[in-house]
Structure formats: structure tokens, C-alpha cells
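Severity: low
Component: inverse-folding endpoint
Summary: output formatting inconsistent between runs
Steps to reproduce: submit the following C-alpha cells with default settings.
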């Protein structure tokens, strides 16, 4: 028998986005599946729309907008199915997407989490799985490329997108789910790296397709959260040996990002993010001890999930010499980590 799925949808003033998702879920859900909407204090007709279109759904009303990560955790806690599927409210499911995502639970037993191919409304790729640069920057893989660029078979990725993310409940609970303090952005990257760190695997089923109305540019607030959460991920998830080896590159990258932020007019957000990280260092160190206590792999193995490429649609490409230097640097780091014969560190 196929594993039951608990679908968790986080909403916030989402009334105008829900119709396609509700129609797709109505076709896809089985008798043993659950559907839970966690509403973050919507001021429009979101709750009314859900109750009109899907009265059988469970609705959790948050007292305020506590963030995507916190709302997802509330939905997961309120459900009991062995598989969790987190969906954004502006997602449209292809007809067989749900079936293909469910089938991965049996066909890829080593995978703890996976995603479908997430497409843009014009048919191009939104993400084919997350990419993580070794300085902690993450982005949507193959964003903007044609659908024909997708492979036709399941494969592993660094992290699965929170816009449409399936995870086994046992793995979610083992690593602690999304980190509440992230509020928004980067919680899926952090979860993916923590899964790999704990010995789990993460992948994509590209033959399952969903469409997502994606917009990267949401102002300086987004840059603040991205930078704050990037450092939270680096300090919590990277094994000590890797963090030590990358320290020079992280220092240089900070100077470069400050220059980029000044050029692109989000320097204030960048400085505020750095200050927030410094203020939260005691809490971050406690979190680091908890995350690293679950580690089952060596630093060299963890580093295999990271990229040295900066080819992404959100940053201007650096000079060729800089690209070559940072690629060579990370290759040396990986070589030194693989050569280590000490205990996992």
C-alpha cells in the first residue's frame, strides 16, 4: 500500500492564489491522506476560500505571522502521516505529480526528502534542486533554463525546495525539521544540509512537475534574511574541519559581498544581518552543538554536496580569474579533507 501523505500548506493573504492548488489537491488526495492549512494571520478571504473549496481540510490559525518555518512545524506537528508534503499556496500540481512523488517513497528508500521539478508559468525551469556554494550561498538549480534541460530520471541534489518538498516524518523529527529562527528564506537549504550531515539523502523526481509563480526580487528585507540565515547555516551545519579550512575564503567573501551590497544598494540590510548574527552567537553555538551531535559523515563527504560554481541568475558573474582561484581553492580544501585519516571532524 502506498504511504499516506500529510500535505501542509502555509498561507498568508493567499486568497487570490489558492484555486489551482485546491483543484489539484482535490484530484490527488487519497482517503488516508491529510490536508492541513496553517494560516499566518491572513487579512483577506484566505480562510473563507479554503473552507468553501475544501471543507474537509484542517485549518490552523496562527496568532500572527510567525514565519514560514514555524508554520510548517505547526502543520507537521498536527499531522500523523508517514510522509510530509509542504506546498506553497501558489503552486499548481501537474496531473500525475502527486502520484510520482508518492512513488519515490518506495523506489528510493535511501532518500529522506525529495522534490518535483518546479516550473515557471512560461514552462521554463524554476528549480531542479538547490545548489549550495561553499560560502553558503544557495540558489535554484537551472532556473530559467528550458524544460528540455531536465533529466528524465530521479537524482540527488544538495537540497529540496521548500515550495514543494516531501520528507519522511522520521527524518523530519530526527533532525528537528525547519529552524524556526529563519522566519523565511534558506530554511530548506539548512534542512537539506542537516539531512546530508546526519547521513540521509535528498533528491528530485524530475518527471513530477509543479508550476510555481516565483519572484526573486522582494527588496532589501529579503537580502537581510538571506544573509542572516546564510551565516546561521554556515555556523550550525558545517563540520569543524570544513569550517576551519574555509575560514580564509569566508573572510574574503564577506568583503566582496559588502562591496556587492553597496553597489546594489542593500548595504544597510547586509550590515544589519551581520549584526543580528553577532548578537545571536550564543544561541547559534548551542544550535551548532545540537546539529553536530547528529553528524554521521566525514567533513570530506559533506563537502561533496557543495559547489565551487557561482553561475546563478541572481548575482553578477565575477571576473574569470576570481572564478578560477576560488575553484582551485575549494578543490584543494576537498583534497586535504579526503587525505585526513583522523576521526570524522
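Observed output (run 2 of 3):
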Amino acid at each position: 500500500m502506498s504511504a499516506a501523505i500529510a500535505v501542509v500548506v502555509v498561507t498568508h493573504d493567499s486568497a487570490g492564489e489558492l484555486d489551482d492548488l485546491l483543484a489539484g489537491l482535490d484530484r490527488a488526495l487519497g482517503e488516508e491522506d491529510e490536508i492541513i492549512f496553517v494560516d499566518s494571520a491572513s487579512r483577506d478571504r484566505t480562510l473563507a476560500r479554503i473552507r468553501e473549496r475544501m471543507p474537509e481540510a484542517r485549518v490552523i490559525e496562527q496568532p500572527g505571522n510567525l514565519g514560514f518555518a514555524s508554520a510548517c512545524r505547526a502543520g507537521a506537528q498536527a499531522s500523523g502521516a508517514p510522509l510530509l508534503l509542504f506546498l506553497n499556496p501558489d503552486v499548481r500540481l501537474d496531473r500525475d505529480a502527486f502520484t510520482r512523488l508518492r512513488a519515490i517513497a518506495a523506489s528510493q528508500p535511501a532518500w529522506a526528502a525529495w522534490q518535483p521539478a518546479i516550473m515557471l508559468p512560461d514552462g521554463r525551469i524554476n528549480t531542479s534542486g538547490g545548489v549550495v556554494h561553499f560560502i553558503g550561498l544557495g540558489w535554484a538549480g537551472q532556473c530559467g533554463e528550458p524544460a528540455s534541460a531536465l533529466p528524465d530520471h530521479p537524482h540527488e541534489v544538495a537540497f529540496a525546495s521548500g515550495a514543494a518538498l516531501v520528507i519522511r516524518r522520521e527524518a523530519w523529527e530526527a533532525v528537528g525539521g525547519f529552524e524556526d529562527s529563519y522566519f523565511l528564506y534558506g530554511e530548506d537549504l539548512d534542512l537539506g544540509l542537516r539531512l546530508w550531515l546526519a547521513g540521509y539523502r535528498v533528491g528530485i523526481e524530475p518527471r513530477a512537475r509543479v508550476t510555481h509563480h516565483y519572484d526573486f526580487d522582494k527588496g532589501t528585507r529579503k537580502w537581510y534574511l538571506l544573509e542572516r540565515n546564510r551565516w546561521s547555516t554556515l555556523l550550525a551545519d558545517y563540520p569543524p574541519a570544513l569550517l576551519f579550512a574555509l575560514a580564509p575564503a569566508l573572510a574574503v567573501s564577506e568583503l566582496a559581498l559588502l562591496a556587492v551590497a553597496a553597489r546594489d544598494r542593500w548595504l544597510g540590510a547586509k550590515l544589519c544581518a551581520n549584526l543580528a548574527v553577532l548578537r545571536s552567537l550564543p544561541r547559534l553555538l548551542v544550535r551548532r552543538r545540537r546539529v553536530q551531535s547528529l553528524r554521521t559523515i566525514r567533513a570530506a563527504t559533506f563537502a561533496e554536496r557543495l559547489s565551487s560554481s557561482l553561475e546563478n541568475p541572481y548575482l553578477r558573474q565575477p571576473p574569470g580569474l576570481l572564478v578560477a582561484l576560488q575553484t582551485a581553492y575549494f578543490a584543494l580544501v576537498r583534497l586535504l579533507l579526503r587525505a585526513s585519516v583522523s576521526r570524522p571532524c
